[in-house]
From TrEMBL:
<dbReference type="GO" id="GO:0016491">
    <property type="term" value="F:oxidoreductase activity"/>
</dbReference>
<keyword id="KW-0560">Oxidoreductase</keyword>
<dbReference type="InterPro" id="IPR002347">
    <property type="entry name" value="SDR_fam"/>
</dbReference>
<comment type="similarity">
    <text>Belongs to the short-chain dehydrogenases/reductases (SDR) family.</text>
</comment>
<dbReference type="InterPro" id="IPR036291">
    <property type="entry name" value="NAD(P)-bd_dom_sf"/>
</dbReference>
<dbReference type="Pfam" id="PF13561">
    <property type="entry name" value="adh_short_C2"/>
</dbReference>
<protein>
    <submittedName>
        <fullName>SDR family oxidoreductase</fullName>
    </submittedName>
</protein>
Amino acid sequence: MAGLFDCSDKVTLVTGGNGGIGLGFARGVAKMGGKIAIWARNAEKNDAAKADLLAAGASRVETYQVDVASEEAIIAGYAQLLADFGRVDCVFANSGRASRSRSVLTLDSAEWHDLMAVNLHGAFFTLREGAKAMVARAEAGEPGGSLVYCGSLSMFHGMPGINNYAASKGGMGAAVRGMAAELGKYEIRANSIAPGYVKTGIGADQGMSEEMKARMAAVDAHFSAKTPIHRPGTIEDFEGIGAYLCSDASRFHSGDTIVIDGGSLIYPPYAF
């Protein structure tokens, strides 16, 4: 493997990488020959993702059941990853969950903290521990590395009701920019990506009632009509950014939030 987006000498960790955007990101790295570690809790989905990534061209794939809501599990997970691979070059902190809240007035402390444990704290500790490994490698004479966070358009928009979700995404966006500022001296870059409306497989037709299929089609049509590229996003749309941010092609790109949304962020509600 050789070329602008060559990942053949890179080890990439993707949390929540056994499906959705995480799998799309990992598949882009795999197509460029990279080595991939997946952290996710579902063993069956992990096995399927491993087969998918090896078929796509990954030179090595290992999967681990790591709970990113636990700082201790993250630290232990890195110890195992480094024992297995010897290094980490790119970390995509992708694990997260949706808010169960529908109003700021009824958003209770249990829901606030439970979401933050994964979306904010888990993501931060995942990137922090990855940064430690990269700094140690830089101090040994081999600088470089890529830290990536999966944000959302709630980093830019006011989103009624889901305040904990938006706060986690916006907070991590700020943390990532701080990492970019601090770690650049080690040639470590840090960026966020902000997806728009993406069909991640949750809305697949298998097992759906006809009523649910119709509802999902209406949701797709609603978002597509408000997106300059008139379709939902797919996980395949994240393969390119995965390969780019893992590879040395992005070695001078840091502190950014890269929007992948078909243009919806820049499309005003009064446009027609």
